[in-house]
# Entry
Amino acid sequence: MRVRIAGEPGAVSASVHVPSDWTGAGQALVLGHGAGGDMETAFLLAMADGLAMAGVLTMRFNFPYAELGRGGPDPQQRLVDTYAAAVAALRESPRYAMNKLFVGGKSMGGRIAAIGVAAGRIKADGLVFLGYPLHPAGKPADLRDQPVLTAKVPMLFVQGTRDQLCDLSLLESVRARIPSPNALMVIEGGDHSFALPRSGSEDPKRVGERIIVTVKQFLEHPVGTPVAPAALAEAKAAAKAEARPGTALVKKPGQALVKRPAEALVKRPAEALVKKPAAGLVKKPATKAKSPAKPKPKPKPAARKK
# Structure
């Protein structure tokens, strides 16, 4: 698929991942790529494939600099124009009818989506941030919070605890000021690309699967938390259970922190080791050997009389 950008001589590439049972009654999600990649990055491709398998029509596209193989991102206005053109192309295509449309992306792609929504250039039912770049690395004072403060739609943030571009304590203070419903999914040990330390016990593939599940839940119920009612009831019923490592689902600041309880680790009790008592060792008393009979002395011959 090619996307034409208004006022631009060329076009950019785009790809739409359509669920096998798509009827046009579900949700669609447009994902922009990060500053250092393009639409073919492994993470973005895995997200699009996984979401389509989960029933979400998903679109990836290139920004012009990535399409042309240039090193640095385009000016912000050109990036917004490209994102708006991608959304318009998807909405206007007769092949891709949808119920609701969400926008977002990886790092810069999500930020540009928020800028477009805040400016009224992009109409969407919500925003999905896969690693929002709240500030440059090492410069937490230089906040990029204006887009999320002014885009008046529900939002989902997916962030790693080791993300150098998003201090989670700063994000919490920003989220407290966002007027729209918003939710946070924390990837324990994840960096800006959700990569985990080698010493971690979490399977990277499993992390990706859980991100897809959480995004899917948010698209279906974009009301401030991706936690389904059944999961909330389960969490309350098992409040004393140990929280599952790797991911925390956090509501809007001020609301209770809800963690999905860990599944109980049930070990089968070891069967008792039963030893059969050793059979008594019965020794037959030794039979006393009889001494051989001594031979009777022969009688001496009688003396002859003279």
In short: The chain has one domain: 2-250. The domain at 2-250 is CATH 3.40.50.1820 (Rossmann fold). The longest helix spans residues 76-92.
